[in-house]
Amino acid sequence: MAPSHVLRCCQRGLAWIPVIFIALVVCWSYYAYVVELCIYTIPSTGEKIIYLVVFHLSFIMFVWSYWKTIFTRPANPSKEFCLPKAEKEQYEKEERPEAQQEILKRVASSLPLYTRTGAGAIRYCDRCQVIKPDRCHHCSACDMCVLKMDHHCPWVNNCVGFSNYKFFILFLAYSLIYCLFIAATVLQYFIKFWTSDLPDSHAKFHVLFLFFVAAMFCISILSLFTYHLWLVGKNRSTIEAFRAPVFRNGPDKNGFSLGFTKNIAQVFGDQKKYWLLTNLDYIFLFPTSSPFFPFSLPPLPPTLPLSLYPPSIKFSLSPYPYP
Ligand SMILES: [Zn+2]
Ligand SMILES: [Zn+2]
């Protein structure tokens, strides 16, 4: 095996360490809450049952959304964004960047592309050999171009983007509920152990730590969750929040915004009953890459300025087949 291959395998293995760490913390929190707190510490049967039911509901939703965020493959650009064979050969033979841009422009004229590089050129990934659709970025960790890339998250060892952004937001929401519920219900026993109202036992260590860990995670998740809700409301990815996308008329940080309600629908879907779960269309139509993306958009004639178009047809980058 080539040394570079071995190195790549090692990197891939090491990338799972944060996920394993989170999984171990979650397993311990389950044991500490269910066994040490509910079974050994809480005297009232009624209280025990209520706590266990609510705990398991939040635990299941948290683990499910975490699982989906980790194991949903990032969506890649569809084959329409690859250069046709003749143009590809021409592009590879050509050494002058201006001539390469001309080839890209010719191919891109039939694609619904609105964004450009900072210098006004067609965005092209040399590594994946593909014209980058709007909001698509190359992730060096995943070594692929990812549609509507938000960021590469080490805690889920996956790219957060078009295919799993909703799962990521739900993961933040459910992990926040999970930690808040633990912190709120453990607090009174934490105080009782701290003030020695409860006798010293092996449960004491677990209960004290359970409160500290849950409170610590609450604070860090809350800030991240609030930031991402703000991004959803503005229809911006984390990358776009740091660097405004460049359109034909120049950079515009609000270029993808369709208005608050539609921005939310782009991530969560337009059926409110699925907002906290998932949409079956989403599972069946977009397991890897979207056949609709982004061809559900009517192409814009290049002569008209972007601002003349009604917002409803400006950008539809939702993982759902409806705008
Ligand atoms: Zn790429
Ligand atoms: Zn990535």
UniProtKB/TrEMBL annotation:
Pfam families the UniProt entry points to: DHHC
Domain Palmitoyltransferase DHHC: residue ranges: 123-242
A GO MF term: protein-cysteine S-palmitoyltransferase activity
EC number: 2.3.1.225
Subcellular location(s) per record: Membrane
Enzyme class: transferase
Annotated TM spans: 12-33, 49-67, 167-191, 203-227
Catalytic activity: L-cysteinyl-[protein] + hexadecanoyl-CoA = S-hexadecanoyl-L-cysteinyl-[protein] + CoA
Keywords, alphabetical: Acyltransferase, Membrane, Transferase, Transmembrane, Transmembrane helix
Keyword 4Fe-4S on entry: no
Family membership: Belongs to the DHHC palmitoyltransferase family.
Note on domains (UniProt): The DHHC domain is required for palmitoyltransferase activity.
Protein name listed in UniProt: Palmitoyltransferase
